Amino acid sequence: MASLVGSRVERKEDKRFLTGKGRYTADINLANQTYAIFVRSPHARASIKKLNIDKALKSSGVVSILTGKEIADDKIGGLIAGWAIRSEDGTEMKCPGNPPLAKDNVNFVGDPVAVVIAESLAEAKEAAEKVEVDYKVLKAVTSTADAINGDAIHEGIDKNLCFDWLLGDRQKVKEAFDKADKVISIDIINNRLIPNAMEPRACVADYNAASEEITLYTTSQNPHLSRLIMSAFGNVAPEHKLRVVAPDVGGGFGSKINVYNEDIVCSWAAKKINRAIKWVAERSESFLTDIHGRDHVTHAELAVTKDGKFLGFKNETIANLGAYARVFGTVTPTYLFGPCATGVYEIPAAYTNVKAVYTNTAPVDAYRGAGRPEATYTIERLVEKASMELGIDKTELRIKNFPTAFPFKQTLVHTVDSGDYVAGMEKAKQMADYKGFEARRKESEAKGKLRGIGVTSYFEACGIAPSAAVMSLGCGVGLWESAEVRFNPTGQVTVYTGSHSHGQSHQTTFAQIAADELGVPIENIDIVHGDTDKGTFGMGTYGSRSLAVGGIAIVNACKKIVEKGKRVTAKMLEANPEDVEFKDGEFIVSKSNKKKTIGEVAFACYLPGVRDEMKSPLPEGDEPGLKETSFYDPSNFSFPAGTHIAEVEIDPETGHVKLEKYTACDDFGRIINPMVVEGQVHGGLAQGIGQALYENAEYDETGQLMTGSYMDYTMPRADNFPEFNIGYTCTHATTNPLGVKGCGEAGAIAAPPTVMNAVIDALGGQEVTMPATAEKVWKACKNLKKSNAKAA
Amino acid sequence: MKDFNYHSAKDSKEASKLASSSSAFLAGGMTTIPSMKLGLATYKDLIDIKNIKKLSGIKVSGKSVTIGAATKHVEVSNSKDIKKAIPSLSSLAEGIGDPQVRNRGTIGGSIANNDPSADYPSACIALNATIHTNERKIEAAKFFKGMFETALKKGELIEAIEFQIPEKSSYQKHPNPASRYAIVGVYVAKHKGDVNVAVTGAKSCVYNDKEMSKALSGNFSSSSIDGMDLDSSEMNSDMHASADFRASLVVTQAKKAVDAC
Fold it and tell me: Which of A157, A650, B101, B184 is most buried, judged by most C-beta within 10 A?
């Protein structure tokens, strides 16, 4: 039987998605359901003086209106940060309360203050307009860089500072800088982004008065984790009385990790009114209230010798958390950021200092790449600048500082098990025709255009993560994953995974893995996920962990099935279990022609007896049935890496940046399905290039979101991209049995610095902030013309 | 969206009769419907004019192209006759919005709305269009009055737009990267005798840039407007483009248009 791992198996999920048969949360309608509309703060910062629902209650069709008072009276808990970070001085981080419905204060535009529940959506909307809220508007704090100097927006949190965190050794770094021939320094902004999943958030909550069970259908990347948080912190219901179902979910990118206000409020309210409640976000609510991503202001320095060896690295960053600290809000700018900020280089001394601040903006949390795009942007912009200032070719300078031996003990935290960064660079250069660039630059110049080339070499730490390691660093949960492999008596297989697919193709790739492990045809394997009633437990999907953690749990559960199968076969065929081999779905007694198929074994496990004989196929100690579970806790992160090269052409008259070529050469370890991986790379690149050239979430000084619709927030479109030139090198991960590494975030991590390095190269080294919009680039072109004229 | 009465008019007369101070004509609904959904506009009556046969269609004569008000952008961009007579007009239509918009939105709706960054108004100015309504004929130069403001009276319905066929023409747009409306769009048309340089997106309303028109009427070459320093004091300024950038883009796009003619 040919191995399915490594082949372009067509997606099992495509038929239902392409024929409109997907079942998303908004497709779910329950008998007698009501509709919820949230009344949201129009102000970025205000105290609530009075909230009057009298008029709204009289509006037609209203079933109930609930406010922050009722939720507080019922002792429903608030939203939480999932990771405790300690400041450099040893103090614990400071987090404000974040009630699901604000009672006294609102802290960003969109912060909900009440929920209106009515018989129809139109009636709920109508009534919501009649809720009267008397706000005392306060001066908003919106600037990342200046938040420390603004009014304290949360009581008891001085300087709006959640923590002031340090990773690394300042003294060692000082000594390294003292020895340097040259210090390269850079000031950069990592622009705020809005995730923009295609499917807006939604939930449908139901209460069964007989079983006293709440069922919540919701757009989540991690239903079990949501249930845990809603039970343990939200006090909504004990875990055994709360079922969370995340059916088909149309994209997450991190924005659907969090338990949101609406999940808690609708679940709690459904029990209160004893009816189902449906809420579906409008796109403008998504813009305002989905978590946002990035938003860093950074000063970084690199100490170098004159021949280009890196000696030391400093990173001083202010990270905007938005109004509240959410699930991955505090770890994203710390442990997901700091360790990766030294990049793929041997740098003897380094530190990263992060001040995380609160502002009156939407909460900022993990968005595709989470911390690693910010880290890679910092180091790769700095290295590119170093190459310009030292006059050393940008690829040579990188190679000079690559580690050559693996495992590579990276400066700050990680031990990278495998990789070959030089091979990745050489292949990328070849794919991009790096040598031919100067000729292409001249061609562009002849047309009156400016051409630039940019390079990024990255690694990232994903496949999160070893539980003991992350819990020692403050994580509130372990980050293992579970799988359950269930054979039916007639031989088909259901695999339950605690991972969640919201575009990642698990239904296909996980089935490929199980098919290879069990020797069962892929059409006889179903992957089930997304329902707390169907599987043991799961930590969900984020941080490129599904395959490297969840996939391994499946492998391990399959291996347990095979072990049991060997014992059963041995009993049935009167052989020693040690003599039974398993291959392509058959258990074969070695040196004989005796064998059983895995289907026969499964059948025997479920029907363990024979007519007219008192005989069981099950060895002593083995129970009937064929079902195995695995909880897999990884021993290390996984470390994909690669080199990307971009070429841009700029029209100096309009400032228009045309991305001419984009080459990505990645090392993702073993690839399960090349077609799916290409899709992941394309998607990541689109978002990364989007950050570099198009996307920007902008608030005005009063805290109003200026880019609250697609009229102003530039989502990139297909015609913004060239055909991507994608290739791979492959070093297998040594820390998991499949040899796999994560691939979902790489594009979003590598693309921003790659594109910006190309833009800045074309502009003769002038700094431009992301996104490199036409006007910014036009101004830089004018400056360039002036300085060229002066030089001439 | 608030409740409203929906009417489908069978001819212009009925449409006009149904019109009141709290009604709106509905063609493609590309602006009307989103405005109503966002609560920015409320109407008691929506009068659908899409089913009025007379309002759709394209007629080309030796001197002009006449397009019915309810003709969709996609019909203009696909019309072989228009491609032959005024190719720049079909390429303008091809660059409006996205496929969904082009398959719903109409030329009459765009002109009646007079969005300061819409594409079609510049074509009307550059191509010396005549706006035919159910009551009269209005010259384009007198039709566009200001931001979202036209010479149309309440209940007056655009029936067709008649464009003069130029010797040469080109429309060049620097689109807003998000909405793809024009940050600046410049429609250059060379007629026998004079040149029009119609500019959209730059100011509160479409206009004919006299200075460039004059220079190009004298010498129809991009060199005659190269380096022209336009007054930016009345130009729009927003987060996508400052007034100075727009002023520069007007010249750049005009030059591109001339070169493309």
Answer: B184
- The structure's pTM equals 0.97
Residue B249 with chain A: CB contacts under 8 Å: 654
Encode pLDDT of A675-731 as tens digits: 999 999 999 999 999 999 999 999 999 999 999 999 999 999 999 999 999 999 999
Give the number of other CB atoms < 10 A from CB of residue B91.
18
What fold, for A14-138+195-289? Aldehyde Oxidoreductase; domain 3 (3.90.1170)
Hey, what long-range contacts does B1-6 have (CB within 8 A, 24 or more apart)?
B1/B36, B1/B37, B1/B39, B2/B36, B2/B39, B2/B42, B4/B36, B4/B42, B4/B43, B4/B44, B4/B45, B4/B46, B5/B44, B5/B45, B5/B46, B6/B45, B6/B46, B6/B48
pLDDT at A791: 84
CATH fold for domain A480-632: Aldehyde Oxidoreductase; domain 4 (3.30.365)
In CATH, the number for domain A418-477+635-792 is 3.30.365.10
The partner residue sitting opposite A714, judged by closest CB among B177, B242, B249, is B177
pLDDT of B193: 86
- Nearest chain B residue to A715 by CA distance is B178
Mean pLDDT of B104-128: 97
Mutate to test the interface with B, among A778, A779, A785 (most CBs of B within 10 A): A778
Secondary-structure class of domain B168-261 per CATH: alpha beta
B227 touches chain A (CB under 8 A): no
B240–A710: do the CB atoms touch at under 8 Å? no
Domains in chain B: boundaries: 5-48, 168-261
Taking only the tens place, the pLDDT of each residue in A510-524 is: 999 999 999 999 999
Give, in words, the CATH class of B5-48: alpha beta
Same fold, A418-477+635-792 and A480-632: yes
Query: In this complex, how many residue pairs, one in chain A and one in chain B, have their CB atoms less than 8 Å apart?
Result: 39
Q: What is the ipTM of this complex?
A: 0.95
At B99 the pLDDT is 94
Of A653, A706, A710, the CB nearest to B252: A653
Residue A248: Cβ within 10 Å count: 19
